[in-house]
Design brief:
By secondary structure, this protein is α/β, with parallel strands linked by helices. It is built from 21 helices and 20 strands. Helices cover about 35% and strands about 20% of the residues. The termini are far apart.
Length: about 500
């Protein structure tokens, strides 16, 4: 077989399905379905089509594949085996096919099977690739979320959603290999748009063993039919007979633990406290430094001589997860107090800092994220008065650990956090410690645990944290009066401005 060069394999998410895995999946599905037609929308060299044609010799089989080399190889396999003569292959892109016409041509019941690309639109775009759907905000993210990364999506998610839209009125079963995170997004989409799912399953597979990919992956099985109770059975292995658990859909969200959700659902709601993420700068070698005997050292190993005016002690998400909240050897250069603040004043307030930024202008100006476009030079993101609050209640978004910590000032300066850390800004130590006690309580832990999927790349998110009504939690724990007192103090201090006012001076 002629294999495409590496970057093309990445562009097309090229993880060909091993024949033994394809056979195992068909063996599983054959216990519940006898399809009249089999469709593989991204068939590659045809592992699924070949296995399906052998197990279901009476079924009409259709494959679509964009790579002409794979199509040629599959056609050769078909021509060499009379048992595969009913397989038809179309050399075209998934995004160019008229799937409505295809669905009308296929006898029912239909089995849609396959292994759509394990690649994101951002990865394809970075390679200058064109194997993408027409540009649209198909996930309906708000402008800010679209700018800061939520608009990045897996190509397979777009494909599976398209197939659901087309076949939702058909007698159809979909069985696809995909990332487990993609499977959950598909379930959320299906249930939130009332796609009639009779049954849903996630069966985990060993992606390292089958594809050499270090990612949580699964076989997602969706049987379209009469609507169910919006529940998906979870299996730890592909061939397990008994589910290990289930996830469900409640109040517009996926629930990882239904029992815990039912026990603490009365704690759900909005709070005046607003969760924030740390500073996003996308240039750690320039903006982050650490102390050593020689002074401050940046990521290039350069000794940095700048004023204190824009320099703040920093904790990374790994520090928060490990409880290293008093370390004082890491620093971040934060050139703005608010988003869109003009940075040209740095030249006057802190000339050495300005010179340093200018010396690394090429790295800062080349940051790829669109959030920096049409912004003052050297801008960062995720900054506001909350960034410089003297006390914070923080949690890491990356680590598989539900534990909140209190972060206080270091060397008389407020600590700033990286953008994979989430926090509540606080004006006082008493406020921070009360909130930490509430959030680390058993009811809060179970409340969050019902909504966290630990195999996700970033299991803890602002969306999850914001579901908890902190006042309802305080009432549950008999601490309502204390919460009202610190809220009153916070309102008074906020009206008087931050405890750390913007009193910059060249150092």
């Amino acid at each position: 077989m002629t294999v495409p060069r590496h970057d093309k394999r990445v562009e097309f998410g090229d993880f060909q399905t091993p024949p033994d895995l394809a056979r195992a999946i068909f063996s599983l599905l054959s216990q519940r379905i006898a399809p009249a037609s089999i469709l593989e929308p991204t068939c590659g060299i045809g592992s699924f089509l070949v296995s399906g044609a052998q197990i279901f010799p009476e079924a009409q089989a259709l494959g679509v594949e964009i790579n002409p080399l794979y199509v040629a190889e599959l056609e050769q396999i078909i021509s060499n085996d009379p048992r595969l003569s009913h397989i038809r292959v179309i050399n075209d892109s998934f995004f160019a096919i008229d799937w409505t016409t295809v669905s009308a041509s296929l006898p029912q019941p239909v089995l849609i099977i396959g292994n759509p690309p394990w690649v994101t639109n951002a990865a394809v775009g970075a390679l200058g690739g064109s194997n993408l759907p027409t540009k649209s905000n198909f996930q309906a993210h708000a402008g800010l979320d679209a700018l800061t990364g939520k608009s990045n999506f897996d190509i397979s998610e777009w494909m599976i959603r398209r197939l659901l839209d087309v076949f939702m009125s058909s007698e159809c079963t979909i069985g696809v290999l995909c990332k487990t995170a993609v499977a959950r997004k598909i379930l959320l989409y299906s249930w939130s748009t009332d796609v009639p799912l009779h049954r849903a399953e996630i069966r985990r597979i060993d992606a390292v063993a089958h594809f050499g990919a270090s990612v949580e992956a699964c076989l997602l099985v969706l049987e379209i039919g009469s609507a169910d109770a919006k529940k998906c059975l979870m299996y730890d292995r592909l061939d397990d007979a008994t589910p290990s658990g289930a996830l469900a859909y409640r109040n517009g969200q996926l629930i990882a633990n239904v029992d815990a959700h039912e026990r603490w659902k009365h704690l759900e709601g909005a709070s005046p406290e607003r969760w924030r993420s740390g500073v996003k700068h996308d240039c750690s070698k320039v903006m982050e430094m650490h102390s050593c005997e020689r002074g401050l050292l940046n990521g290039f190993g350069e000794v940095v001589d700048i004023e204190d005016a824009y320099l703040y002690p920093m904790l990374k998400t790994s520090d928060i997860a490990a409880g290293r909240i008093e370390r004082n050897d890491r620093w971040m250069l934060v050139p703005q107090r608010t988003v869109r603040e003009d940075t040209s004043g740095i030249r006057i307030i802190a000339p050495r800092t300005w010179k340093y930024l200018q010396s690394h202008a090429a790295a800062l100006d080349s940051r790829a994220s669109s959030i920096y476009r049409k912004r003052p030079r050297f801008s960062v993101f995720g900054v506001g008065p909350y960034t410089f609050a003297p006390w914070k209640v923080a949690i890491s978004g990356l680590y598989k650990k539900l534990h909140f910590v209190t972060v206080g000032p270091i060397a008389g300066r407020p600590v700033v956090l990286d953008d994979t850390t989430y926090f509540l800004p606080c004006d006082s130590e008493s406020q921070a410690r009360l909130l930490v006690g509430l959030l680390n309580s058993e009811p809060a832990t179970e409340f969050f645990g019902a909504r966290v999927f630990w195999d996700a790349k970033r299991p803890i998110t602002v969306d999850v944290l914001s579901k908890l009504n902190i006042e309802a939690l305080a009432i549950e724990l008999g601490l309502k009066d204390q919460l009202q007192q610190v809220r009153s103090l916070h309102a008074t201090q906020t009206s008087q401005s931050l405890l750390f006012p913007d009193t910059r001076a060249a150092g």
